[in-house]
Amino acid sequence: MNRLAQDIRYALRQLRKSPAFTLTAVITLALGIGANAAIFTLVQGILLTSLPVSDPKQLYRIGDRDECCVEGGYPSDDGDFSIFSYDLYLHLKSASPEFEQLAAMQAGLNTFTVRRGNATAKALRGEYVSGNYFTTFGIGPFMGRMLSESDDTPAAAPAAVLSYEAWQGEFAGDPSIVGGPVMIQAHPFTVIGVAPQGFYGDRLTDDPPAFWMTLANEPLVAGPSTILHHSDSNWLYPIGRVRPGTNIGSLQAKLSGALRQWFMTRPMYTDNGGAAEIPKQHVTLSRAGGGIQSMQQNAKTKLLMLMILASVVLLIACANIANLMLARSTARRTEVSIRMALGASRTRLVRQIFTESVLLSCIGGLAGLAVAYAGAHVILGLAFPDAKNMPIQASPSLQVLGFAFLVSLLTGILFGTAPAWLSSHAEPAEALRGSNRSTSDRSSLPQKALVIFQAALSLVLLVGAVLMTKSLNNLEHQDFGISTTNRYVLHLDIAGAGYTVDRVQPLYRQIESRFAAVPGVTGVGLALYSPLEGNNWGECVIQQGYGAPGPNSKCGSTWDRVGAHYMNTIGVPMVRGREFTEQDTATSPQVAIVNETFVKRFFPNQDPVGKHFGIDMVPYSSAFEIVGVFKDFKLNNPRENLRPVYLRPMTQQFMGYKEDGMIGGEVQSMFANSILLRFDRPQQDVETLARRTLSSIDPNLTVEDLRSLDAQVAGNFNQDRLTARLTTLFGVLALILASVGLYGVTTYFVARRTSEIGIRMALGSTRKGVVKLVLRGVIFQIGLGLALGIPCALIAGHLMASELYGVGAYDPMALTGATLVLALCAVAAGFIPARRASTIEPMKALRTE
Q1: Hey, what long-range contacts does 165-171 have (CB within 8 A, 24 or more apart)?
Q2: Going by C-beta distance under 8 Å and a sequence separation of 6 or more, which residues neighbour residue 168?
Q3: What pLDDT shows up at residue 105?
């Protein structure tokens, strides 16, 4: 211990004597270790976090996919079933006593209008859950009581449980709210309790539920004929607590059998050849300790990719520090030789060098934690700019601290190995005789090898940065098919303000007339969902004269409901026929307009105007007449190829459905979610103007969200933009480190060969010849680095292919551009010491030794 203390004191003295070296090394390590710790913080917070519930290891989900939000029929071609109707959930629950509890929760969360007394209404996220939801998770109340199975019956009084964060943030922590009434979608509920602090529900999300209510309340809130009563509408995820000792494989096979048994009783799954698909239907039991893995599945590839890139940056930083340490060890060669001549053992010298390396890396690691803390917060803020009560912890946890310490220790050992090895093989007599006079440069081989290694890794990061930047550029500047300039989207909740379906048409007329009268407004469009907000509905289309589709029919089509003049408001031209007008009323024939892709799919080589179609839930295929065809535009996912789309007017409710669930869905679709406003010029305060206009129509109407259409479109790329920026940051950092490393090695090369250069110049060598001599070595190192880096970059591009849009894994321009940038920076870094070498005075150089 005394010797260790001596080594640490000695290492601190050596670092204090070289402040420039120490500062450079600490900053380099802080960036490398901090980048890794920041990404690991997110990996740990998103991918490795368990739900804050009792014994999460016992939790299993029936299903393993993110099948949101309401599905009909077979949701996947391979038969893997992951989303269930209420009746099917009850069937599986009764067929599996192996679960101590099996709870159900809705697949997609909703936003509801919540009002307490005369206070201003709030738009809050809520979730329908089964009555045994909290019992399944082992969650007790912070205040009041939790929901129970007795609350999940039609006869029970409507009840809700608040999250702790919503209770504190939305209701100021008022304890009197428990036992008191609130209005949810204009229906009275009693707040029976507050969930404990830290419980955010059954999944990780940037906007967790503010409250929970039972499945039995869904008809009350959404209407009497809704998906709860529709046996074939799949909208629930089941999660259960498995009894100890249960064989998961056997339970999975049993549940798959129960699933197929259920399908055999349902005409939707047996008719039109569907029975042939039933044998391959199955469920997968997946561990649910981390909850429903929606965010994890979406973020996993990006996070792992960033983790790999950050590790590459750390390797480059280690190579840089190793180069600096090698240069220091060479400069201290005489000192080491004298110490060895005076009796110091090689083991002690090696230990001192390792102590200095590890101490330096630990200091860099501490600085890296500050970088990690700030970096993780910045990354989360950029990835989820609209997050509300996000449960992801951006502060480094104990695991992250342990990770940073381990990385620091390994880093110190890694970059201390080469200097320690050289010192252990030093010959005191040779050093004392003046070995620095040798013109052979074998001692610099490890440094040159590290530069080659840096160049290869830097090329990989630069190519990755170019690929991600091109992909982001392709995403952001693709042809969405809509006009976004001077257009704004206002989201509101009409049902939450107490409106019923028979009262919405006068309201829509008022909204259109009032907003159209606002100075500068040149277009007003109502819609169920606005373009690229991430929502749409879908149905199976049946052309007139065709029979019911089979299970493998490619009949799917996206659909939306919009108001008159909507297409003109978003700048989408009609290519045939007309768009909706005020003459499309509740009593006029049911009409629809379709996109060009719809025509290609269902009416190829035909004039679709005047043709009719229906959907698979309608008993005949002539329900809707096509009156117009509009140009293709991206409605939902900007990454997907164009899909068939049909639009129906806000003014027409179809009354021909026979299924209760479809009637409920039709009613829900009559409530506009968005108002699109087009202005003739840029606006300064659209929100104030919109709120004032909406309040003049009805004070109970609240603005849930208001943003420009440009911002709404750009919001689809938050995570892609962040990934591209981080990849570019890593690439630039790698380029700087590689250039600095090459500069250092070349400077060391010049210093080591000062006498040789002096002799060459004394014998007639020109300054130009000296520059060529130095640059020849630089170009050789970079050439080897590029030769190694190009195949690695091609492999990296192949691994990144799933994250790219409109860019091939092998992109010659990206590879060529990255190669040229790296080569130019390397030549620039080498030219400075080369030019300095050419100014050496021969006589001064000969006196150096």
Answers
A1: 165/197, 165/200, 165/208, 165/210, 165/389, 166/124, 166/210, 166/211, 166/389, 167/143, 167/194, 169/389, 170/114, 170/122, 170/124, 170/210, 171/116
A2: none
A3: 96
pLDDT on residue 175: 95
What distance in Å separates the CA atoms of residue 63 and residue 60, rounded to the nearest whole number?
A: 9
Count of helices and strands (H, E) across the chain:
25, 26
646 neighbors 488 (Cβ within 8 angstroms): no
**What whole-number distance in Å separates Cα of residue 79 and Cα of residue 732?**
46
Q: Each residue of 554-594: pLDDT tens digit? A: 888 999 999 999 999 999 999 999 999 999 999 999 999 99
pTM across the whole model: 0.82
**Residue 698 three-state SS:** coil
Q: State how beta strands 556-562 and 537-543 pair.
A: antiparallel
The 10s digit of each residue's pLDDT in 498-516 is 898 889 999 999 999 999 9
* Residue (of 554, 599, 549, 552) closest to 574 by Cα position: 599
User: What DSSP state is assigned to residue 671?
Assistant: S
Give the chain's end-to-end CA distance (angstroms, integer).
Answer: 41
- Residue for token pair 């007795």: 150
Question: C-alpha distances in angstroms, 522 versus 265, 570, 650, 678?
Answer: 54, 11, 20, 6
Radius of gyration of the chain (CA): 34
How buried is residue 294: exposed, middle or buried, by Cβ count under 10 Å (0-12/13-18/19+)? middle
Quote the CA–CA distance of 417 and 742 in Å, as a whole number. 20
Mapped onto helix, strand or coil, the DSSP state of residue 396 is: coil
Select from 249, 195, 254, 188 the least CA-distant residue to 221.
188
Instruction: Write the CB contacts of 13 (distance below 8 Å, at least 6 apart in sequence).
Output: none
